[in-house]
Design goal:
Length: 499
């Protein structure tokens, strides 16, 4: 790779600029390339130190639920390493692809320049086998986010992790600040699921859902799912070796609850202890006490709990519509007590999927003046052919090769108002890249100044939701259902800024 500097004696300043441009260019460089001879007496690539961290993306075989299954690890673990950074910093990492297929990493919920967004063939070329790339972007936000591959089902196969941006001036004093990243696992390749749902391949237990027997929600209603994982985990741990945290009576604990699953909605409770919700999708909300949460794929909630007792507090997570659950434990005793548990009773009030009403922004927000761009987005699906659509169009994917979905066009400076309508029987966690949006508490409540700000919103079956954002981050952005099987079956659009 030649640096774009022509002068034979670049000043130091030019050299740094040139090298920086190189470092952030989203182009794969073969990891095995031998070092090249410097063409100038001062090798300009040395002006920028390598990133302080590296994501080594590797294939592995793991068996969290008894069946050895191909997986993708980052740095040898699932989930990948937790990123902990501080607001205002420059985030830098090197991605090394040791797979024999292409990959990318998307920074979910982060406001990044379009070319750092990690969507293959939309914002960048995929990172090929044996290639590496350096990623760099400023951290404008704070809060709980996550990263994941945006290639096929790689995220579900393990390529995901927490991305925590600490506040520059901490707003909450706590004794522990920990990630609770919840994931689902299939004892088979996720690539076979859509063909099974379509009846093109023999069905396995993963597509034989029986919501009537699974965890119900809301209230006593069955929760519709189309894919049943083999099990679920907290920070990569199953009930066989539960996640635990040693605490003391009187401690305040911040739990960063992240749903990193491929397609599960999780009900989460902490024994009979109230949880104070302080943030949703990384954004501060007016603190509100809840008994439990219902968290869709890709959503995050930060909660603060007080350890009001000696003895264990059990963190329960159930995958709605399935019979699966997993527990973790906060314990005051020096050793980890065994978790013996009859099915948990999740307490009310519940916040999240199907009930965002208790969420209010911590500070009044409005979006700048500008022309209004109204967009209606109808969520659709055909269970027989197992294809999912937005406004009747199917995005082309491996599983929808004949798909065609026109981009939604917006212009910089517009106030974009999206009205979702969901005539289907399922919840759809809709996510827009590169932006956060106001989720209106009632249809048409555009004037509500305390609408919570999120990046993923679950639109309920037979329901409608209005969201609003300011178009201030030009580029081509993915916009899709975060249920991975719905997305791969066509439920995606691009949002394009036009001039
Ligand atoms: Cu979590 Cu397309 O994103
Ligand atoms: Cu969906």
């Amino acid at each position: 790779m030649t640096a774009p500097v022509r002068s034979t004696h670049p000043s130091r300043r030019e050299a740094i600029r040139a090298a920086t441009a190189f470092a952030i260019a989203p182009i794969g460089v073969a990891a095995s390339d031998p070092p090249r001879e410097a063409v100038s007496p001062r090798p300009i690539l040395e002006a920028v130190p390598p990133p302080p961290r590296t994501f080594e993306i590797e294939a592995a075989t793991v068996d969290p639920f008894g069946v050895p299954t191909p997986a993708i690890t980052v740095g040898g673990t699932i989930p990948g390493p937790e990123v902990r950074v501080t607001q205002g910093e420059l985030f830098r990492t090197r991605l090394v692809n040791r797979l024999d297929t292409a990959t990318t990493v998307h920074w979910h919920g982060l406001i990044v320049p379009n070319y750092m967004d990690g969507v293959p063939n939309v914002t960048q070329l995929p990172l090929g086998p044996g290639e590496l790339v350096d990623i760099e972007f400023p951290l404008r936000q704070s809060g709980s986010y996550w990263y994941h591959s945006h290639v096929g089902f790689q995220a579900q196969q393990g390529l995901h992790g927490a991305f925590i941006i600490e506040e520059r001036h901490p707003r909450h004093e706590v004794d522990h600040d920990v990630v609770v990243l919840m994931s689902d696992w299939l004892n088979q390749s996720p690539d076979g699921i859509i063909p099974q749902l379509r009846g093109e391949q023999p069905a396995t237990a993963a597509v034989e859902s029986d919501p009537a027997k699974g965890w119900r929600y809301p209230g006593d209603r069955p929760y519709a799912v189309d894919v049943v994982p083999a099990g679920i985990t907290i920070n990569g741990r199953s009930n066989a070796s539960p996640w635990s945290l040693r605490v003391r009576r009187g401690d305040r604990v911040r739990l960063r609850l992240i749903n990193g699953s491929g397609s599960c909605t999780f009900r989460v409770g902490l024994d009979d202890a109230p949880m104070k919700v302080i943030a949703a999708d990384g954004q501060d909300v007016a603190p509100v006490e809840v008994g439990s949460l219902a968290i869709a794929t890709a959503e995050r909630y930060d909660v603060i709990v007080e350890v009001d007792r000696d003895g264990p507090l059990i963190l329960d997570v159930a995958a709605l519509g399935t019979i699966h659950r997993v527990s973790g434990i906060l314990h005051t005793s020096p050793s980890v007590p065994a978790i013996k548990r009859s099915p948990p009773a999740f307490r009310d009030p519940v916040l999240g999927v199907g009930n965002y009403a208790p969420l209010r922004a911590a500070e009044p927000n409005t979006i700048p003046d500008g022309p209004i761009r109204p967009l209606e987005v109808v969520l659709g699906g055909d269970m027989k052919t197992y294809r999912w659509s937005l406004n009747g169009e199917y995005y082309p994917t491996k599983f929808v090769p004949d798909g065609h979905a026109a981009p939604l066009e917006i212009q910089a400076g517009e106030r974009v108002r999206i009205s979702f309508r969901n005539p289907t029987m399922m919840f759809h966690p809709m996510h827009l890249h590169g932006h956060s949006f106001r989720v209106l508490p009632r249809l048409g409540a555009w004037d509500d100044r305390l609408a919570p700000i999120k990046d993923t919103v679950a639109v309920p079956p037979k329901g409608r939701v209005d969201i609003e954002f300011f178009a201030d981050n030009p580029g081509r952005w993915f916009f899709h259902c975060h249920n991975m099987f719905h997305a791969e079956a066509g439920m995606i659009r691009q949002v394009h800024y036009t001039t």
